[in-house]
Amino acid sequence: MDLWGRITAIKGNQIAISLESREELASLSLFTTEEQPQVVVSVQDERHISKIQRKKAYAVIGEIADYTGYIPQEAKEWMKFLFTMETGNPYFSFADTDMTTAREFISFLLEYALKYHIPMRHSALTYQDDLDRYMYQSLKYRSCVICGKHADVHHLDTIGMGNNRDLVDHRNKHLIALCRERHQLAHQLGWQTFKEKYHVKGIILDPQMLNQLGIMTYKRMKEIDDEQRKSYRQTN
Ligand SMILES: [Zn+2]
Ligand SMILES: [Zn+2]
Question: In this predicted complex, what is the ipTM?
């Protein structure tokens, strides 16, 4: 069995691993009766396609297969085909590809899963291999970065300008897609704590992206700029 998590502390020859959730351990007793079961901890190698990347890719393919009804082998070939079509990357083999291609492929798979709201056993946050890209995809599909539920766009930087709440300016602000529940939690815990707890980050989108993703229209940007100019004139 594979447990998915992060090494969160190292002390002498001991490591602490925090898993995505407690449920990870629920079925542990089905696998072993040993008090101190033997494990091999694979740490991501940042140069070659790693065992973890391969596991991530296969795990997401497995989720897609379950959802679509294909067998995993078919889903894998189909997704690889779509990937090469869409990205122009040459056909690759998991046995010997490089880390960058593997990373792109995992992002591609996750985008597919987010786009079709495919329910998954693990959080997509656990499977992602490129945090910036995943944060972006979650904003694009309004999918909570932690649980995948429908999300709103959350501002990390305080909303500074204007009293008009309809004119919220998303430009040059760190944004993150969070469901209502996690959004409240983010406010409760404070961003710093929240960010460290979940290993997430906010990203800044340029005006073109904001418009394209339907977060903020060019019209609204202009309204805000006009209003700001007006109030500037009034106070000066
Ligand atoms: Zn959520
Ligand atoms: Zn908020």
Answer: 0.91
